Amino acid sequence: MFVKKFAFQSAALAAFTLAPVFAATAYINEIGYRPGDSKELALVDANGNVDFVNAAGQVALSVTPKAASFWDASGQNVQLVDFSKLVEPGKYSVKVNGNELRSDLVVKTKTYEDVVKAALKWFYYQRASMSLEEQYAGKWSRAAGHTNATVELHNSTGASGTINSTKGWYDAGDYGRYIVNSGITTYTLLSLYEHFPEYFKTLKWNIPADGSLPDLLAEIKWNLDWMLTMQANDGGVYHKLTSLGFPGDVMPAQDNSKLYAIGKSTAGTFDFAAVMALASRVYKPFDASYATKCLDAAKKAYSWGLQNPNQNFTANPSGVSTGAYEDSKPGDEKIFAGTELFITTGDASYKQSGTTEYISYWGDVTGLATYEKATHQAFGDAGEAKQKILGTADGFVKRAESGFGVVMAKDDFVWGSNSTAANQGVWLLHAYYLTGDEKYYNAAVKALDYLLGKNPLDMSFVTGFGTKSPKMPHHRPSTSDNVDDPIPGMLVGGPQPGGEDVGSAAEWKCADYRTGQAATAYTDQRCSYATNEVAINWNAPLAYLAGALEALNAGYAPEFAVDGVAKGELPTSSSSVAESSSSQGPTGFTAPVERDLVRESQPRFRFDNHKLYVEMNGKRFDLKGERIK
Ligand code: 9MR
């Protein structure tokens, strides 16, 4: 007893006397850095060289920080520290003048694989209409919610009666299901699979099997099945499936509020058409009849959209207060839908012109069409698409060179700012696919660094990952399940100065947490739906960004590079883009390619240490077709 007490006292004393007066902070990606990647941390209030000390206590690397520059999003003067030369896997502490700033810096391979799996597994935790069994969900197992298939058509749909609708993912911390937000989310996850099918055929994260589908496609199908229930006989798609107001802070099974299909919108219908056209391509090798069902649904939705070009959901109908996902300009969704339908069918009547230099969010999806166009030469504006992607990406690269060393700028701190960061990373990856230029890859890694800890809040924004991460997300299951830890793998919305949830008395209102700085206006409390909620359209780009980085580093080039179209060199005479039968690599390497054949005998573009090469029959070739020994 005495010894124990003494030990405690001396530890407390030691902590008191040795507590550093030193206020410097080193902000790092708390999950880790890949041995071969460029690596950077952000340093504030320090003066001197930065030492990276290994487990044996040796200084493995010492770096002189760059000159400080001001980051107006957080109001800090920041020195960037490039420690790319730290290549030995291991755990390091970061020291300046002998003072330890932190001891949790990790260099490792397969750096983000666990984050990828968790970010994707979270979609399983969001499933409506099924119970989550302990063998998959562990301590977060729960009863099924929203199992009643009969849903009333709200008068805002222009119809009466009921439809049958189950499945799908809950949108966020609430239990609504919204077609518009399902649009960009499901596209992002489908494109992750379409770009890296070989990688995702084998990656598993313990969810219930669905036939022979890879986990990623089994997960996405849960939401596609729900989306299909939301299409009316005339082809139009109901805007959302929610109760009239947000439910209380209860588990899904305890939310017995009546569900309605509400509104029917042009934007939602075009989003649906785009997703179904893309799904039709992706599921075809596994389930031809499902692919046909998706394509028929897409075509029907598209025709309805053409006939009803302005049936816009611009605000909730009276008596309804769930998420609006309002949109008065469905032109971008039309471009998105036409683009996906053209790629899938090769029917030129679907072709839509239009590209953008802006990254997408749920309300503007031209950026998604821009990605597709840049890699499909058959679009008249493919070159323009590529130019815009590269132009914006160059700006992102530049931004990441100073300030906090991240892509985010002051104006990017909007509701769901973390999805902006993630989508900036995805955009940069597309620039990398199109050029193979490492500066884009490096900036994409910096976008992920930001989300995983290299930010002025000094925290990972993904639950369950990192030295410090959100504990009290605005997420009904996580607050009402009697489990201390929040469900893992959720990307919270992140800092933004709007303060929409700041108030006094009412439930769901927070004390003012704003700081006067955009990048630190955040609070880890359940009340904060404006900074600490979670949402499917935020997790999807996190999963894409981390997933694509893992796939690239496992040696997979994005699948469209195999068709040569990424470099814009595919002959455009082919009537159907999807069934191209020849391929040219970036510098003219030509070889026959046919989709859906056994991959081994085909040439594949592969990455090795960021260098593109061609693999065929187990042999490596450079891009001129010369054998690499
Ligand atoms: O992500 C949406 C954000 O862009 C809007 O500014 C905000 C307010 O309209 O709504 C967000 O979406 C919420 C949706 O309406 C309902 N489910 C939770 C979503 C995330 O907060």
Q: Topology, pairings included?
A:
Elements: H1 2-18, E1 25-27, E2 40-44, E3 50-53, E4 59-63, E5 69-71, E6 76-82, E7 90-96, E8 99-107, H2 113-125, H3 134-137, E9 150-153, E10 162-164, E11 177-178, H4 179-195, H5 197-202, H6 215-229, E12 238-242, E13 260-264, H7 266-283, H8 288-307, H9 331-345, H10 366-374, H11 382-399, H12 417-435, H13 438-451, H14 476-480, H15 536-553, H16 559-562, E14 582-584, E15 590-592, E16 604-608, E17 611-616, E18 619-621, E19 627-628
How far is the first residue's CA from the last residue's CA?
Answer: 68 Å
Low-confidence runs of at least 5 consecutive residues: 1-20, 563-601
CATH architecture of the domain at 126-351: Alpha/alpha barrel
Provide mean pLDDT, rounded: 89
Into which percent range does the helicity of residues fall? 25-40%
Bound molecules: ligand 9MR
Structure annotation, total helices: 16
- Tell me the fraction of residues in β-strands, as a range: 5-15%
Report the biggest beta sheet as strand number plus sense, adding barrel if it closes.
Answer: 5 strands, mixed
Helix-strand category: alpha+beta
CATH class call of the domain at 126-351 = Mainly Alpha
Number of strands: 19
Spatial order of the strands forming the largest sheet: 10-9-13-12-11
Radius of gyration: 25 Å
Q: What is the molecular shape?
A: globular
The third-level CATH topology of the domain at 126-351 is Glycosyltransferase
